[in-house]
Amino acid sequence: MSVEIFSDVPQVELLQWLARGSLKQNLLRAIRLWVWLRSLYGETSDRLLLDDSFTFAGWRDAFFTPTHPKGEGIPQLHDANCPCAKTTAEWLFNTKTGILESQWKRSLLAHLSISNSVEDTKPSAAKNPCSLKSESDLDELLQRRLFGVTRRSLQADLEILEELGWLKYQQQTYHRVNNLPSRPMTTNLAAASTKLHSDELNFLNQEDLAAIAQNLSQEICGIRRFFCQLDYVIPRTTIDSVDDWQHKLRELWGQTPVSAIALNYNSARLGQSVECCVYPVCIYYVQRAVYLCAFGESPDRNTDWYNFRLDRIQNITPIEWTNSAIPLVLQQRYQKRQLPTPEEIEKQMSDAWGFDFYLQPRLMLLRFEREYHERYIRNTFRHDTFKAIAYPKAERLIRQQTPPSQQQELLKVLANRSPEDAYYRVYYRHGDNNVSMRLRAWRPKVEVIMPWDLRQSIADDVSKEFHLYHN
To answer: 61, exposed or middle or buried, with CB in 10 Å at 0-12, 13-18, 19+?
Structure first.
């Protein structure tokens, strides 16, 4: 049987795919699976002299030296030439792979930066051989014997390869496949380097920030000069589930067609868990957390779109498009071949300020104290619709955009404000929590003049705050 050649380099994206969840916890297994694939599908120099149909014992005898122990325990060092004696670093960093060790380690630690910065509080964490919290932990891990594991662990590796579609298991025998599964691919060092400096930086979504990261991501005279600090509020108890859901979604997005999903969601707003049938569109990191943007059912059933915080998702189950539980609005878009796209979300977010892009857009009029504006607001970017306007224009907006019952009151407010202050108009998503938090951060240097109901809501908050501190 003729099979494809596996020449993939073990870069982070491939290892994350092989890990099937938290790469931090499954790094050694992911690297070991990569070696398995080289032994089964690699170039002639890497591929074992093994039939296309084989047993575990057949692979073991072809892979290890004849003196390799055949028992259930971890093999002791018995032969310096046996593959079980090689460290993880020796498998990774050699002339065949062409991987630069320092670059590979930086890429891996950058990928794990969020979870590495959070101390794992699980009782078993101290015993976990793949618990990575620092570069020294990684160095220690790379010196471990990659195949110095039990027979049971190697048998589990084979089962994972079968689940991932690399092997078929029939009549107590494993069989190689003709077509290798689709996966993140990097086939040489030059491509890997390009990927590190382009694709992995594109997520920043800001050309200037991406350029800074690209220019300064390499050490200068042995010293790291660029750092990116993220406020990340995901609780320690659910940090691994975020990795799991990202992995599961990545698998779903690699299928044709992409299926709808039923997800069980612990809604903070409703104070209970609800099930929603949705189409997963994309993932965003916004304001301290990671969200799945999905179309179909929201927890409160008030909108078709919703941003689900990943750490609050309790379960994800793919469902067939024929499932009657799929909401009609989603079913119709599927039948018309007009499933939602990330571009739709970007368009909505460019139309109005706020991450909850599916909420009602409304016009807001703001006033900043002049000195504060000159120091912190002028020459900054907030949103495409965030525009400075002259004092007379602010008056015209009130007359044009507010009903008569509120208009006179707001005109009186404006008349009592200095024309020398800074006035801005912006379209925002009414009810968006991120917009509310930004307005709170600016108080008392900013005043929301309109819309009326938002102004009154802020006044109520300020009154409650005053009584807290005054008393």
So the answer is: middle
